[in-house]
Design a protein that fits this description.
The complex is a heterodimer of chains A (117) and B (198). Chain A is built from five helices and five strands, in the order βαβααβαβαβ. In chain A, helix 1 packs parallel to helix 3. Chain A has 117 residues and is α/β, with parallel strands linked by helices. Chain A is globular, with a radius of gyration of 13 Å. Chain A has a five-stranded parallel β-sheet with strand order 4-3-2-1-5, with helices on both faces. Helices cover 38% and strands 21% of the residues of chain A. By secondary structure, chain B is α/β, with parallel strands linked by helices. Chain B folds into two domains: 80 residues, 3-Layer(aba) Sandwich (Glutaredoxin), CATH 3.40.30.10; 111 residues, Hypothetical Protein Ychn, Chain: A (3-Layer(aba) Sandwich), CATH 3.40.1260. Chain B has a five-stranded parallel β-sheet, sandwiched between helices. In chain B, strands 2-1-3-4 form a four-stranded mixed β-sheet. The longest helix of chain B has 16 residues. Chain B starts with a strand and ends with a strand. The chains are: A alpha/beta (117), B alpha/beta (198). The interface between A and B is medium-sized, with 21 and 15 residues.
């Protein structure tokens, strides 16, 4: 029986390795049968902004893969709004929600990883 | 790993506090082969504040299991048997010397180990450079203390390769995980109770 892992990602792509670390942990945890949530917070929503294919490393593609594998992804609506990131800018199918959704995830999680700082 | 038993008592020591002390002493005598450390402490001690203990008598096992009143010897024995230290994972993503991250990680690891926790220090991304041998300075001394105290140092194989570091170039007694994410997910989900990323 899988456990529930919630990942908080505060960093955007192409600034540090955090987005990729977070997503690769999410993918592996999913592969191992765990329930995985990922909350894109602060600069994290920029990962969802990377929609096109690139001839180089692509965090947006990893996020797409994670969603296809059943990772639950949500974007902080205020973080998105502050960055003028509207739903049409982000990968399809990611709800933009308030922090309460994140605290709900915290409540139901066995483990939480925070990629911040 | 040892078990720390703290007995918080009123000053002067009252009847119930004395009864609890006697029960603990009895358990101690019956378990001489076990690695038990007992401390008798007053309510106005910093330890009581740290544990959040406000009423005496009170028994605290490994700083976590808190029982008010006067548990009997059987109950105390059970508490000791069930006392499992926390397993803590510290994931370090930063290289040494560029920020305080590595120092914080190592100091936290040492402190957690001293309080009886099982501690794993997982080096990933630029964090792998911490395990590069031949570095001089106090940080390496602290890392050595952590390892000597039974702390575990784990290194991401993928990032080791990316950094061009060979396993031979690393400190003694570090574990290289050839499948970084497989190892990391198992540690996070199955082994560690608490995880912090620095």
């Amino acid at each position: 029986m899988g456990k529930t892992l919630t990942i908080l990602l505060n960093r955007g792509p192409y600034i540090s390795e955090y987005a990729d670390l977070a997503l690769r942990v999410a993918l592996k945890a999913r592969e191992k049968g765990h329930n995985v949530n990922m909350y894109l917070y602060v600069d994290g929503p920029w990962v969802a902004h990377v929609r096109q294919d690139k001839p180089y490393h692509n965090s947006g593609m990893l996020l797409r893969q994670a969603m296809e594998k059943g990772v639950n992804v949500k974007i902080c609506n205020r973080c998105a709004e502050a960055r003028d990131l509207v739903p049409g800018d982000a990968l399809e199918g990611i709800p933009m929600v308030g922090l309460f959704d994140f605290t709900e995830w915290l409540r139901e999680s066995d483990r939480v990883l925070t990629f911040t700082g | 790993m040892g078990t720390l038993i703290e007995v918080f008592r009123n000053t002067p020591v009252g009847r119930n506090c004395r009864a609890l002390s006697q029960n603990v002493a009895q358990v101690l005598q019956a378990n001489v082969e076990k690695d038990l450390e007992v401390r008798f402490l007053p309510l106005d001690s910093p330890e009581a504040e740290a544990r959040g203990v406000e009423i005496a008598p009170c028994l605290v096992v490994n700083g976590r299991t808190i029982v008010e009143g006067v548990p009997g010897p059987d109950e105390i024995t059970r508490l000791i048997e069930e006392a499992v230290p926390t397993a803590m994972g510290i994931i370090l993503t930063r290289g040494p010397y560029s920020s305080g991250g590595a120092e914080d990680a190592v100091e936290m690891a040492v402190a957690a180990r001293e309080s009886g926790d099982e501690v794993g220090l997982f080096l990933i991304s630029d964090g792998v450079w911490l395990a590069h041998k031949g570095q001089i300075g106090p940080l390496m001394g602290r890392l050595a203390s952590f390892q000597e105290a039974g702390g575990e140092v784990l290194v991401s194989g993928e990032h080791l390769v990316a950094a061009g570091l060979s396993p031979e170039s690393l400190l003694e007694n570090v574990t290289v995980l050839s499948d970084t994410y497989d190892g990391l997910v198992d540690l996070v989900m199955e082994r560690w109770d608490k995880v912090i990323i620095l």
